[in-house]
Amino acid sequence: MQLALRNITKRFGALVANDHISLTVEPGEVHCLLGENGAGKSTLMNVLYGLYQADEGEIVLDGEVQSFAGPGDAIASGIGMVHQHFMLVPVFTVAENVVLGNEQTGFAGKLDLEAAREKVREISARFGFHVDPDAVVEDLPVGVQQRVEIIKALSRDAKVLVFDEPTAVLTPQETDELMGIMRQLKSSGVGIVFITHKLREVREVADRITVIRLGKVVGEAEPTASNTELASLMVGRAVELTVQKDAPTLGDDALVVSDLVVRDDTGLAHVNGMTFTVRAGEVLCVAGVQGNGQTELTEALMGLQEHVAGSITLDGKELVGRNVRQVLDSGVGFVPEDRQVDGLVSSFTIAENLMLDRSFSGPFVSAGTVRRADLDAFAQAKLEEYDVRAPGITTQAGNLSGGNQQKVVVARELSKDLRLLVAAQPTRGVDVGSIEFIHKQIIATRDAGVPVVVVSTELDEVVALADRIMVVYRGQIVGIVPADTPRDVLGLMMTGERPAGVA
After folding, report:
1. What are the pLDDT tens digits along the chain (503 aa)?
2. In what order do the strands lie in the sheet with 216-221?
3. Residue 445: in which H helix or E strand, if any?
4. Which of 76, 207, 231, 480 is 20 to 30 A (C-alpha) from 400?
5. Where are the domains of the chain?
6. Which listed CATH number (3.20.20.60, 2.40.50.140, 3.10.20.30, 3.40.50.300) goes with 3-235?
């Protein structure tokens, strides 16, 4: 089935999320939709899937114009979607999830689960998925859960499959398996729309590439295009994709974590016995699939967790037992994983956000009064130094793009007299150009002799920034390895396996 989107336009008030976008997906083709977060990719696919109604333009399947009032219409027409955040019921079995919303009944209206089981077995056998129809979804690895999503779409005879950022929660091995699945689907005649911002994956699997920037199609490219060419199309300027850094000049052990345990209110340990050190002038990157204790680790370092055992010392001083204010005053800078929840006050101006954590004393407060001239001068300097794209320092943080919001957070944290930098997902949701800039600032901080802990689920980022890599799985350290450790070894470690020779 051929899919054509013609001049699709979608507005949200004054914001034009999609501006006359046109593209075609042929049967048996992987068409990659490449662009940064906020470029309009997901909005376009939500229009295709019937979740949004286009303000202008049309959807055409095999030459016939379609009108989708909702996802049910799109599914009935042969459109399937594999969402970034899986649309599965965790306590249901695979078969129950597959049949949900499309239930088949037998005698006296009884649900025919055996038909669903047989459908799962048939599709699994056809594509080599090895999925047990009676397995409970919450007990399955993330990669297998994604296969359940694919089975669910194929069970409804999807002829065009949309994959929306499908590798965001996968290990490298699971990502490679997904690429193989896409090739199998392609060979069976299924058309695929692959939404991503990861250049390596695009070049590996795409037949055609359409690049979207700020809601518009800005170009098409062949899979043979270089990462540099693709990045330039995405951002609109030349981008340096590799992190330039010299060998570290290492000092003494600065951050020492010993037998750290972090429990939730029910007593479950999310961090279970972690012991590691970070030296002055070193970047230690924490790698792992999201949800393996990374959030709890960074929050424990910042004094944000209540149930903490073990020891965390910075320059010989114990941090466990101190509150957040005391940890920050010890010289710790913190870039949180969710800037909108923990990093910024959206209704505050840029200038006001830049003085957060320093509203009790100098250099911006004297005798309980804000020294406005000093704050404004500082904010204007940071606006220019960090290339924050905003009308001025009085712009509310909530009106900035994601990348510019992140720059404000990074500017605030790196402008302190740091003894330690903790950066959790420092480039999540930002464009390639902002990633380039933030990486440079992190390395500059390390070169100034500050110990840095970076937590990231992006393996490319981990490899680019790290002097050493600490891989975590289910709250424990699998191993701490050099930055040049092969990706396949790191991927294996992210599943909990400890390869021979790994300490």
Report:
1. 999 999 999 998 888 989 999 999 999 999 999 887 668 888 899 999 999 999 999 999 999 999 999 999 999 999 999 887 788 999 999 999 999 887 777 666 677 788 889 999 999 998 888 899 999 998 887 788 888 999 998 898 899 999 987 876 677 777 888 888 899 999 999 999 998 877 888 888 999 999 998 899 999 998 888 888 888 888 777 777 678 899 999 999 999 999 999 999 999 999 999 999 999 999 999 999 878 899 999 999 999 999 999 999 999 999 999 999 999 999 999 999 888 888 999 999 999 999 988 877 778 888 778 888 889 999 999 999 888 878 899 999 988 877 788 889 999 999 989 999 999 989 876 767 778 888 999 999 999 999 999 999 888 899 999 999 999 999 999 999 999 999 889 988 998 988 877 76
2. 79-82, 160-164, 191-196, 30-34, 208-213, 216-221
3. helix 432-447
4. 231
5. 3-235, 241-331+417-503, 346-416
6. 3.40.50.300
In the chain, the N- to C-terminal Cα span, in Å, equals 52
Whether the domain at 3-235 and the domain at 241-331+417-503 fall into the same CATH topology = yes
CA atoms of 37 and 427, how far apart (whole Å): 11
DSSP 182-224: HHHHHHTT-EEEEEE--HHHHHHH-SEEEEEETTEEEEEE-TT
> Whole-angstrom Cα distance, residue 495 to residue 223?
30
Find out whether 254 and 420 touch, Cβ atoms under 8 Å.
yes
